[in-house]
Design a protein that fits this description.
About 25% of the residues lie in helices and about 30% in strands. It is globular, with a radius of gyration of 23 Å. Strands 6-7-8-3-9-10 form a six-stranded mixed beta sheet, with helices on both faces. It has a five-stranded antiparallel beta sheet with strand order 13-17-14-15-16, with no helix packed on it. It has two domains: about 230 residues, 3-Layer(aba) Sandwich (Rossmann fold), CATH 3.40.50.300; about 80 residues, Nucleic acid-binding proteins (OB fold (Dihydrolipoamide Acetyltransferase, E2P), Beta Barrel), CATH 2.40.50.140. It contains eight helices and 17 strands. Strand 14 and strand 15 form a beta hairpin. By secondary structure, the protein is α+β, with helices and mostly antiparallel strands. The structure holds adenosine-5'-triphosphate.
Amino acid sequence: MLKVQNISFTYDKIEVIKNISFSTDKGKYLAIVGESGCGKSTLLEIIYGLLHVEKGTVSWNDEKLLGPNFYLIPGEDFMKYLPQDFDLMPYITVEENIGKNISFLDENRLDKIKKLLDVVDMSEFLKTKVVNLSQGQKQRVAIAKVIAKEPEVLLLDEPFSNIDNFRKNKLRRNLFNYLKSKNITLLVATHDATDALSFADEILVMKDGKIIEKNTPEKLYQNPSNVYVGSLFNEINEIPSEDLKFQNPSKKTVLLYPNQLKIVGKSEIKATVIQSYFKGNCYLIEAKLVDTIIYFEHHNSIVKGLEIYLNIEK
Ligand SMILES: Nc1ncnc2c1ncn2[C@@H]1O[C@H](COP(=O)(O)OP(=O)(O)OP(=O)(O)O)[C@@H](O)[C@H]1O
């Protein structure tokens, strides 16, 4: 089990990690999400041992990790970290880069390199020098290199930030399934809702250096505690309960995803259409409900100014 207890960290007198505690079990994938600057990368750097913390501890299987003041080379042997600015050696080949993390004594060295390149869909670049790759291709090689050592714990910071959508879906399916099959404990800092919702065992939500939620993807998505949490996964509406004609509401506002509002022939909820945005599988309709701008999904675009009636889908 990876355990983080009461960690705080300060950059230039500004506290950017504020008394954080959490744990995650071996073989689990914990996604770390939150707005830019909330402290995701700093947290990963602390866990890996790049940053020294005055307060708090990080432990793996009940053994306390000692941090950068105790090691000349940062990082623990059983752990690997892929930062946002992945470091590869540009003037050697993809094979040689990945090979740096596999022993020369390993009889299956080349097979292992090929298998890793298969995971990241880069097989045809085995003999290519890294300098001749695109940013997205470099990122895929960096992922292959970091998993080559089969660490017990893997920390990834925005691992698919340079990968196009066309390739991203296949890549993350391959990678997350591969890591699961190896029982590698995974922490991923990400802005991508799919990385977290579709693959993580649990999601940790950060805001201003603190953890504000930790739960399964289903529970977080279906019952977001506030608009900040919901908006990390999807467009979300925060609508005054009275505008939705709720009788004796328990809360002043209600959080609803766009697919939870449906146009009906007649209802008590009347809104005026402002704009329609094509989303591929549907249109996202922007409308005004009393004084609130709301968004809902519809199969057609709707002309500006039209008055429509809405119902809430359970
Ligand atoms: N080297 C540094 N010196 C001073 N402040 C820093 C340094 N690195 C990060 N910070 C600050 O620490 C806070 C947390 O930064 P961090 O990079 O951990 O956020 P993040 O959630 O990973 O952001 P992003 O999603 O944009 O990568 C930010 O306010 C940032 O400005």
